[in-house]
Each structure stands twice: as C-alpha cells, then as structure tokens.
Write a structure and sequence with these properties.
alpha/beta, Rossmann fold, binds adenosine-5'-diphosphate, binds iron/sulfur cluster, binds magnesium ion
Length: 319
C-alpha cells in the first residue's frame, strides 16, 4: 500500500469574477521513504495540491477526488480528525519561514511545544531533543542559540529551524513547498542536503514542490511536471532529465543554468502560463509550444504511459 495516493484531484475556487480551475485531475503516488518532486511554473497548481492534501484550502476553495493516507481517505475530513491524522503522518515546510514562526516566542519554546504535545516528552527531554535536532541542522552553537528569538536568526537559519521542527514529529511524509526559494544558492544546497540526510536517517518520504528544476536532480527519485493544474509528464528524475518526452519539460530543463553555457542566453520558455479561469479546450501548453497544431488546440491530450514508470500528455511527444 502506498503511503499517499492521490486520485483525480480537482481544486477550484469561486471568486467574484468566476471559477478558477486550479487543479484539474491530478494523480500522485508516494511510497514510504520515497522522494517526489512536483515541478512547474508559478500558478501551475502545485501549492493547491498540497493544501488539498493537508486540508488547508482557502475558504473559497473546494476539492474533489481522493486522497488516501495509508489506505485511509482523508480528503474533506472533519477538521478535528484531520488534525489528529495530520500531526502523526504529515508535516509541511513553507516558502516563507517568518510567517510560520511566532516572532514573540523563543525558538526553544516553539520547538519544544511540538515535542511536549505530540510526543509527550517532559520539558527537559524536549529541550535536549530540540538542541540535538538544531545541531543536526548545522545551527552553530545550538545550545545557547535555542534561547533566541526568530529575528535573531538569519533567513537560512530560520528555514533550517522549520525543517527541524517538521522532522521533530517524525512524520512519515514531509511536504516542502518551495523551501529554498527565498534563500541564496549556498543555503539552498545546504537545506536540500539536510532534507536528504533526514530522509535517509528517519525514512521520511518527501514531496518537494519547486518551480526550479535545478534543485531536483540528486535529491528526488521521481518527478511530476505540472502545467495548468494538470500533469504533463511524470517519471524517474534521471530518465526524465536524460530524455524529456513533453515539450514543456524540455523547455523547463533547457532553462536550468549549466556550466557549459553563458547564463545570459538562458532560453526561458516564451509566453505566459494559461489563466486558470480561462483554460483552453485543448492542450494547455498549445499557445507556447513550438510543435502545436490544430489537433493540439482542439483536443486535450491524455496522460499516457509510454514506458514502465513513465507517462506524458502530448499528441506529438519528443522522441
Ligand atoms: N483563494 C484563491 N482564490 C482564487 N484563486 C486562487 C486562490 N488560491 C490560489 N488560486 C489560484 O490557483 C492557481 C494555482 O495556484 P498555486 O497552486 O498556488 O500555484 P503554484 O504552482 O505557484 O503553487 C493560481 O491561478 C492561483 O491564482
Ligand atoms: S499536445 Fe501539442 S501543444 Fe501540447 S505539448 Fe504536445 S505538441 Fe505541444
Ligand atoms: Mg506555490
């Protein structure tokens, strides 16, 4: 049984000027200990998939389909029950660490609360465990710094505190939504390394949400490419990088900085992502795709498997 199975997930928002179709029939599976990257440009529906899984959609949003956690349906569960399951199984790290930390509480109080509440430790045990976790996250001088307030930490340190806090509950699944987007490259790499180490030690499964395919290689087993709230391509990271099948995936990969190329000429994909309020009838990528023809504009391509573990949604896939 997979740890997480998402089937035909749809998320829509009702707004004053119409319905926003943010997620349009997404399937995902995560095995215990596995790491999956969900990749796509801003607005492609990545965060809303995660919020639907966590039961954290905005008030004007609704979700349909199925989200099973260890075989149990959790989509649209009542708040209380969801909280219980969530705290035992899933933890989430968001992009902006400052909004997730309480500025008025010392780091020690924020970290130990997780342990005294969820793991029923005494305050002393909890403090020692929190210090151990901060040390594992390379926070210098953790024993004295744990008494400080969030504003006394750098952005990168705050993000590491959040990763540490997420791991303190020993979740079976960690969802990291753009965890390194606001950080510089060195700190990004450090956070990704710490996530990978924690995964190896605790056996935590990881869903890494990112608009930057560059951070995926070396950290994730599988990847899913999202566009217009739909999966365009999925498969093992190595295989997809070596031979992308979908023109959009190739566009994303071409935009990753490489040492053998001058970054000035980075070929970004021309054009803009589709408006989730006015999705086209056919392929959502058609307006930007060099291979698009009449059929692409009329008929929505289905996500089809073309090799074991790989699938793409395209009428004219790359060879
Ligand atoms: N509360 C909301 N009301 C209306 N539209 C929303 C709301 N939240 C998100 N959206 C829209 O849903 C789409 C997907 O958003 P999101 O999943 O956050 O994208 P990203 O891939 O950048 O994480 C976007 O078009 C966004 O504007
Ligand atoms: S279906 Fe057509 S428009 Fe869409 S990605 Fe494939 S070739 Fe391009
Ligand atoms: Mg997002």
């Amino acid at each position: 049984m997979p740890l997480l199975r998402v089937r035909n997930l749809r998320v829509r928002f009702e707004t004053a000027d119409g319905t926003v179709n943010a997620v349009n029939g997404v399937d995902l599976g995560v095995e215990a200990g596995q790491s999956i990257a969900v990749v796509g440009e801003s607005g492609s529906g990545k965060s809303q998939i995660m919020f639907a899984i966590m039961g954290l959609l905005a008030r004007n949003g609704s979700a349909s389909g199925s989200v099973e956690l260890e075989g149990r349906e959790v989509l649209n569960l009542a708040e209380e029950e969801l909280n219980r399951i969530r705290s035992r199984h899933i933890a989430m790290v968001f992009q902006d660490p400052m909004t997730a930390l309480n500025p008025y509480l010392r780091i020690s109080d924020q970290m130990t609360e997780v342990l005294t509440v969820h793991r029923r430790m005494s305050r002393r045990e909890a403090r020692e465990e929190a210090i151990r976790m901060l040390e594992a996250m390379d926070i210098p001088d953790a024993r004295s710094r744990i008494g400080q307030f969030p504003h006394e930490y750098s952005g990168g340190m705050r993000q590491r505190v959040l990763v540490a806090m997420a791991l303190l509950c020993r979740p079976r699944l960690l969802i990291a939504d753009e965890p390194t987007t606001a950080l510089d490259v060195t700190v990004q790499q450090q956070i990704m390394r710490l996530l990978s180490e924690a995964r190896a030690e605790q056996g935590t499964a990881l869903i890494l949400v990112t608009h930057d395919v560059g951070v995926v290689a070396g950290h994730c087993d599988e990847m899913v490419v999202l566009y217009g709230g739909r999966i365009m391509e999925s498969g093992p990271v190595k295989a997809v990088f070596a031979a992308p099948r979908h023109p959009y995936t190739r566009g994303l990969l071409n935009a990753v900085p490489r040492l053998d190329r001058d970054d000035e000429d980075l070929p970004a994909i021309p054009g803009d992502p589709p408006d989730a309020q006015r999705l086209p009838a056919g392929c959502p990528f058609a307006q930007r795709c060099p291979r698009a023809d009449e059929r692409c504009r009329r008929v929505l391509p289905a996500l089809e498997s073309f090799a074991p573990g790989r699938a793409a949604a395209c009428h004219h896939p790359l060879a």
